[in-house]
Amino acid sequence: MKRLKVMSIFGTRPEAIKMAPLVKRLEKEEEIESVVCVTAQHREMLDMVLQIFDIKPQYDLNLMKHGQTISDITVGVLKGLEGVLAEAKPDIVLVHGDTSTTFVGALAAFYQKIKIGHMEAGLRTDNIYSPYPEEMNRRLTTTLTNFHFAPTKGNYENLIKNGVSHDEIHIVGNTVIDALLQVVQDDYRFEEEILNQIDYKSKKVIAMTCHRRENWGKPMENIFRAVRGIVERNREVEVVFPVHMNPAIRKLAQEILGGVEGIHLLEPLEYMAFANLLNKVDIIVTDSGGIQEEAPALGKPIVVVRTETERPEAVDAGTVKVVGVEEEDIVREVEILLKDSAAYEAMANAVNPYGDGKTCDRIVDVLLNYHKNN
């Protein structure tokens, strides 16, 4: 029997992290020919992940440009993939999540009548502008997809509401857990020496990320002022903040958080270092979507500085709390976790709703079953 040709398309660091364990699993399967195409919507951060997981793409569109707009990315991915798909002729294209690469990758495959598998399908906030443009990207991708790989039952129900057939949805968990469990090490040493010098046992250490487009401006200023206030009021607290490369974010971070004792502003960390940082800290303050999935597997309370989340499962499980973007709300909720051990333990010991590290096996089983019957 002819091998099933599966092309994985991704372009950003978060996509790469979540696609990497599946790519490695596909490479091991004798009945599957695995092909990788990266768009490099992100470049340096993407390359770090490819190196960690030893992934060598067969196709690289290398689209990253300084100051690129969403339109630039959309046009570049669509045009670049036209020739790649015509040459490679995959049987199935796999895309992940909600980036511009995800939506346009699915659209490009549809134009050439190639089957599409969407990993992390069914996430919804029901607000097309939050997160922007991700919420619309994931909705549009759903309309093009043949295999919907949903992390949770809630995602499955979202897809059913959107008119997707039950037979096309597969609840498989989230591959981010597969990736995380491969890289976390209890005895990990960081290349960034400051991270080795932090006293994680006697200090209360907070890992922070903040970059989402909808938080730019006043919301981000509120978040940074809240974190500064927490550190100034609680001298046992240290904050580690790998600052996003966006110049506006870096400027604001320096203005509000720079030079404050106990706050460490770092360059972005590669994936293995960041995963191991999450494993060592006490609390995570973030506006990231993916971290809401990763941190529960490590038993870390997550304070989400957004007004809504497309990952309500972790909120329902009790490991994530969405606190909004007002300074006083952020300070109050973080200080509860710092001072109330019962509240902290309730979040830290909540059950991870995103899987058991076997998501890749389930996805491969679905693909092989399709191949066997077609």
UniProtKB/TrEMBL annotation:
EC class (word): isomerase
Lineage: Bacteria, Bacillati, Bacillota, Clostridia, Peptostreptococcales
GO molecular function terms attached to this record: UDP-N-acetylglucosamine 2-epimerase activity
Domain UDP-N-acetylglucosamine 2-epimerase, residue spans: 24-367
NCBIfam families: wecB (TIGR00236)
Similarity section: Belongs to the UDP-N-acetylglucosamine 2-epimerase family.
PANTHER family documented for this protein: UDP-N-ACETYLGLUCOSAMINE 2-EPIMERASE
Annotated keywords: Isomerase
Name of this chain's protein: UDP-N-acetylglucosamine 2-epimerase (non-hydrolyzing)
InterPro entries recorded: UDP_GlcNAc_Epimerase_2_dom (IPR003331), WecB-like (IPR029767)
EC number: 5.1.3.14
